[in-house]
Amino acid sequence: MDDAKGGMFVDGTWQPVSGGVLAVIDPATGEPWAKIGRGTPGDVDRAVCSARQALAGPWGKTSPAERGALLMRISQLIKERHGELADLESRNTGKPRRQAEADITACARYFEFYAGAADKVHGETIPYDPAFLVAVVREPHGVTGHILPWNYPAQMMGRSVAPALAMGNACVVKPAEEACLSVLQLAALAATAGLPPGALNVVPGLGEEAGAALSAHPDVAFMSFTGSPEVGTEVQKSCAQRQAPCTLELGGKSPQVLFADADLDSAVPAIVRGIVYNAGQTCSAGSRLLVEQGIWNAVVQRLQQAFGALRVGRPQDNPDCGPLISARQKERVQGFLEQARRDGIPLVIQAALPGDLPMGGHYVAPTVLGPVPPEHPLVQEEIFGPVLVMQPFEHEAQAIALANGTAYGLMAGVWTADGGRQLRLARAIRAGQVLVNSFGAGGGVELPFGGVKKSGHGREKGLAACYEYSVTKTIVIRHG
Ligand code: NAP
Ligand code: MG
User: Ligand 1 pocket by C-beta < 6 Å: which residues?
Assistant: First the structure.
């Protein structure tokens, strides 16, 4: 891997930042193990200038087919460096090595998918007055800003910048300070693949400094933000000052709705994985389990078995659940568990933490709680840890009301053999994605993804992202 030396990747090269360095903490041990640059507003400005120059130079003149070929080369290089990138991602985020491998594979797949899409997003002509030709063409926004979270750094990088580059924008990325090492390396790999200088820049640093400067920069024409609703609101306010559009992906409290006629053999493992994967730090985690009353006891029994068998451990040992990202995140999750205890919420099962885990590591035992009243914070707030809350229901209408009964609307799972009910639930649940008899973190690269309500707005993934990262221009020609 290239040596970031605590710097930023701007204008096709490693450069020093002006704000000094920040320590990177190993989530598995709590010990510092690397350093990253603390980018300043001045550094962000340099990156935005470089992106503008790229658009005015060779990058701005690249044809869609050439952009596709470049993205395909980036995907190829990611595949060639798969092992090193997975090591880095696992060490930086604390996620089990196998999950980091899946993330790098997905990152390569994003570049591959948008490589294919680059020259296939067409405009249209519109039948109008016979004396006119009307063409609607799609153009890049210009400089796009991308603020990323720490939970899936490499995947988020692919998800966000691959469609932006495919559509001809130049990107400035501010990754999360907790986990940004793979993001920096991916930018360097893209340059190695031949991406012109300035087309993809990464400035690491703190949100209030580098992140706020990026979202407020007058030359950033479009912002993509993934993270908490609180910061998302600030980013949107900042964009509103200059009427710049933005997409916000702000997490969720996604329900899994389990009916008595569901195939529990396939549902329960998917439900466990849906909350334990990445230690529950997934925006689309299935963090609420709505269970039809008649099978409550059977489901409790199965969850007790499944959670009892979970292995919590060090990332390199490929456990089911690794450490959380930070001491702060661990405290936050433990705060919710403490509140549950104080409020007398029944504990269904808590997995065991092995005694030999490093003392300073950010480990939390996967936990199931329930029944939890609908208005309780455990039901209403995103915990972002391996904590599943159970809610009973008696009939379909109540299930729908509970499923829609939070401020969020990102994703939902519906488990039932009844075809009519599958469709009714899919239509009635307010969310960006509804999965029937399956559940996966956000679905595939091809599938449009994003939220409604407090989960945000705008769509990523699939061709939908190409439309977000471009803007139409209507050209009207009077030819007589
Ligand atoms: P966060 O504060 O929203 O951070 C997300 C990104 O925004 C990071 O890159 C962060 O930078 C940056 N940021 C922070 N303040 C900013 C500002 N004023 N202007 C512009 N950018 C700013 O999220 P967090 O504190 O890491 O996590 C808090 C909660 O957010 C979690 O518990 C979880 O519920 C939610 N979350 C959701 C997702 C998701 O996928 N939807 C992902 C992560 C977190 P720095 O972190 O480097 O300061
Ligand atoms: Mg943060």
Answer: 147-151, 174, 176-177, 206-208, 211-212, 215, 226-228, 231, 234-235, 249-251, 283, 332, 382, 384
